[in-house]
From TrEMBL:
Organism: Paramecium tetraurelia
Protein name: Isoleucyl-tRNA synthetase
Record-linked CDD domains: Anticodon_Ia_Ile_ABEc
Reactions this protein catalyses: tRNA(Ile) + L-isoleucine + ATP = L-isoleucyl-tRNA(Ile) + AMP + diphosphate
Entry keyword set: Aminoacyl-tRNA synthetase, ATP-binding, Ligase, Nucleotide-binding, Protein biosynthesis
């Protein structure tokens, strides 16, 4: 920092003025009463000012038992031999900066945590990268040299392309804003979340297009879209995992035309600029709703041990949220594919399937409603109509009239011989019933969805926040045949992988049933 470095205030005063205060300083939590404190004392004494604009504090790394690491005790794994040589420096870096350390919290270091980074982040990311490279090679074997065209990402009308491009630009905007605000702890979790979205949603839902199964035009557009978003996430991740990103970039840049994005190293590139014209909040919201529905349906299938290879007759989404229902209808073909069903239905009239039940929360009601909480209120809540419950859910409150008993005290003299130990009077208590206004809030009531099992015995039901889903697992012969075909395809793909067959290769098969 400039005080000792510039020998201020004894020398270099003009230079000092140009660099004070510092944009940011960074040190460990242990410097709270050390360097951080000393800087503030000196700056206050000499300048009556703070010596920095931003302060970044990291926590302390402890061993897996929460103990301070000690060279003499050797109570921690060797960083080079046991961590870097086994898992790589990038895995350790990402493990550390995706932890509470960047928020001044301590971390119990775990080798398993480093290994999880490889399993949950690097491998899916690498598989998406490899999938792109394989299909670029296939493209070039059929149509000639592939050259990345940034303008091609807007030439198609595929919903998933528009969504992933919009999400990518939203991510770039987020990273730039957080970097400028020095909120470094928010960035890596968001980057990892985007990688999960890219690998488990976009690539999964567009494998056929990226392989060229839907014609050359879709092939070109989908390859350019995947290339664009992979290049951007690789560039955004490069400050955190410099080695794996450099490896990816050196291969990707073979398809990048000469210009600002084709440099000797990825670390010579600038963070991408935001193209706000490509951001579509509506389509991002629609896909997010679709993802929630798909995840809920998957959980319901798993809960009832229904294999995804076997089709189910239908999936019905019950909701009153018009935007949710529109999103489901708009993206129904992707839901059908992911849930393996020929029919996705939406239903606003949920009364035929679901009965809402209300029960007062005794603890909260007793604390907040006081004497208004009694048998009459309990009975009213339990007898709420479906319309009353929905009003309470949507508006957050409901006006009621409740009957309560109030004490009426009467003094009655006792006609007896005086007795110094006896009470002079006796209180008789009478009660009168009064009606009071009561504002019942949503937090005062527990609301549950109860599926009408008697009317719909064969259906499977689950409720989520804001909607419910119904699976009809009944099987027609056609659905059974589709399930058998899917199982057969799965076995063939596993066999091809085991034998090392290339994608698109023609190989004979003998099927014995």
């Amino acid at each position: 920092m400039p005080f000792a470095q510039q020998h201020y205030p004894f020398e270099r005063k003009e230079l000092f003025e140009t660099i004070f205060p510092a944009d940011f300083i960074a040190e460990g939590l242990d410097q709270t009463r050390g360097w951080f404190y000393t800087l503030n004392v000196i700056a206050t004494a000499l300048r009556d000012d703070t010596p920095y604009k931003n302060l970044i504090v990291n926590g302390i790394v402890l061993n897996d038992k929460g103990e301070k690491m000690s060279k003499s005790k050797k109570n921690y794994p060797d960083p080079e031999i046991e961590i870097i040589n086994q898992f790589g420096a990038d895995a350790m870096r990402l493990y550390l900066i995706n932890s509470g350390l960047v928020k001044a919290q301590s971390l119990n270091f775990s080798k398993d945590g480093v290994q999880e980074v490889i399993k949950n982040v690097f491998l899916p990311w690498y598989n998406a990268y490899r999938f792109l490279i394989q299909n670029l090679q296939r493209y070039e074997s059929v149509l000639g040299k592939f050259e990345f065209d940034e303008n091609a990402i807007t030439k198609g009308d595929n919903t998933m392309d528009k969504w992933i491009v919009s999400s990518s630009q939203t991510l770039v905007e987020f990273v730039r804003n957080e970097m400028e605000a020095y909120r470094l702890y928010t960035i890596v979790p968001r980057l990892i979340s985007y990688l999960d979205t890219l690998t488990n949603w976009y690539v999964r839902l567009n494998r056929g297009r990226i392989k060229g199964d839907q014609g050359n035009q879709e092939w070109v557009v989908s390859l350019n879209v995947l290339f664009d978003v992979l290049l951007k996430i690789t560039l955004l991740m490069s400050p955190y995992v410099p080695f794996i990103t450099e490896s990816f970039y050196q291969n990707l840049k073979k398809c990048i035309p000469q210009g600002k994005n084709n440099q000797e190293s990825i670390h010579f590139l600038q963070i991408p600029e935001v193209r706000k014209e490509l951001i579509d909040p509506k389509i991002e919201s629609q896909v997010e709703k679709m993802q929630i529905v798909v995840e809920s349906a998957r959980k319901l299938r798993e809960a009832h041990k229904l294999s995804l290879k076997q089709p189910v007759n239908s999936l019905t989404i019950l909701a009153t949220d018009e935007q949710l229902l529109q999103s489901v209808q708009f993206l129904s073909k992707y839901i059908e594919e992911e849930i393996n069903t020929p029919s996705v239905l939406v239903e606003k009239n949920i009364d035929q399937y679901i009965q809402l039940k209300a029960e007062p929360d005794n603890k909260i009601c007793g604390q907040e409603l006081k004497d208004k909480f009694g048998p009459d209120l309990i009975q009213q809540v339990r007898n709420f109509t479906q319309e009353q419950i929905r009003t309470l859910k949507s508006e957050g409150k409901l006006q009621l009239k409740v009957k309560v008993k109030k004490e009426k005290k009467v003094e009655e003299q006792v006609q007896q011989q005086p007795d110094p130990k006896a009470k002079k009077g006796k209180k008789n208590v009478e009660y009168i019933e009064v009606e009071l206004d009561c504002e019942l809030l949503l937090k005062h009531v527990k609301i549950t969805d109860q599926f009408n099992t008697e009317k719909h015995k064969q259906l499977l039901f689950a409720t989520e926040d804001g909607f419910s889903i119904i699976l009809d697992p009944s099987q027609t012969q056609e659905l059974k045949n589709l399930g058998l075909a899917r199982e057969f395809t799965n076995r063939i793909q596993k066999l091809r992988k085991k034998l090392g067959f290339i994608i698109g290769g023609q190989n004979p098969y003998l099927l014995s049933i």
